[in-house]
Amino acid sequence: MKTIKRRSFLTNVAITSALGAVVLPSEAKSKKKTFIHHVYFWLKNPSSEADRSKLIEGLTALSKVPTIRFHHIGLPASTNRSVIERSYSVSWMLFFDNLAEEEIYQTHPIHLKFIADYSHLWEKVTVFDSEEV
């Protein structure tokens, strides 16, 4: 029977334990359900460059909420097919690690300040939320 030194034994136990705690990428993906929050704004004055710029300024400040993983501010693209909606003024797409992170965003002081400071600019907002399959 082979004798194992105490130090080698403890090192092997530590390595084995650490490897057991490692999550493989495919397992991590299955546990993490990305949450997308996509907002479309229709301005009260859709032809006003100043109002659109002001809203974009507000969205840029709003992007500082720490639970946001990625954000995109967009304008209607020049594409033109029957299935494409182009009547909105500005879109705001956010990626979160999960629904809980998005819920933190909803009540975050930066988000509440954004609504208070900029809601006078829009007449309509439509939101599409989705979770990763």
TrEMBL record:
InterPro entries: Dabb (IPR013097), Dimeric_a/b-barrel (IPR011008), TAT_signal (IPR006311). Transmembrane segments: none annotated. Residues 35-130 form the Stress-response A/B barrel domain. It holds the Pfam family Dabb. This is Dabb family protein.
